[in-house]
């Protein structure tokens, strides 16, 4: 299934007013399990640093929900959010101007080519690397763009069922993916090749998270891919499933997993 047309349809609905876009971000924060894991790591990274003047790169910003969250943590943090999709970048810049968030800027950039040496204290890459074939080049560019001691935080599918692939004969649930998921040792080796020395990787989306993902993401996306009329049924669907998804997300984000369909990786320069 091609996910981008569905994402564009959602964007068209929630971009109509700043209030709707804020609501959209709040819903994503609650429904998307990866957000629970990413926010946990960002809180740990930012503890005691709200008064520091920090520079942050959102590498593959998408809807801009992580830039929105980060820009609200401290007015002293400057966030550059880059993406290859011009329409999303333009929409995000307009929205951030409307709400007066002057510490965030969106720009069109290709991560395979983009490099800004020694510029950032933190780089964030959430569900991006599974879309990019030249991943080592991206890791090298981000490594060069980080200051000494800077950290890269990655969320990406693993090879333990990520992209809903569980055997050699299956293909990715999301057809825009160029890889189904990373082996945990493979991604660490690629980061070392790019110049990172200290690397920590752990699984996300254990059993609770996988159930939540199917209920909150897979089944609704399949329905929307079949017909946009299912937009009308989504509020009733989530009214039934939302409480269970929240509970499952909490368990997944607060549990260490021996295996999982996602990876959370931290690497320091």
From TrEMBL:
<dbReference type="Pfam" id="PF13847">
    <property type="entry name" value="Methyltransf_31"/>
</dbReference>
<keyword id="KW-0808">Transferase</keyword>
<dbReference type="InterPro" id="IPR029063">
    <property type="entry name" value="SAM-dependent_MTases_sf"/>
</dbReference>
<keyword id="KW-0489">Methyltransferase</keyword>
<dbReference type="GO" id="GO:0008168">
    <property type="term" value="F:methyltransferase activity"/>
</dbReference>
<keyword id="KW-0812">Transmembrane</keyword>
<dbReference type="GO" id="GO:0032259">
    <property type="term" value="P:methylation"/>
</dbReference>
<keyword id="KW-1133">Transmembrane helix</keyword>
<protein>
    <submittedName>
        <fullName>Class I SAM-dependent methyltransferase</fullName>
    </submittedName>
</protein>
<keyword id="KW-0472">Membrane</keyword>
<dbReference type="InterPro" id="IPR025714">
    <property type="entry name" value="Methyltranfer_dom"/>
</dbReference>
<feature type="transmembrane region" description="Helical">
    <location>
        <begin position="221"/>
        <end position="240"/>
    </location>
</feature>
<feature type="domain" description="Methyltransferase">
    <location>
        <begin position="52"/>
        <end position="165"/>
    </location>
</feature>
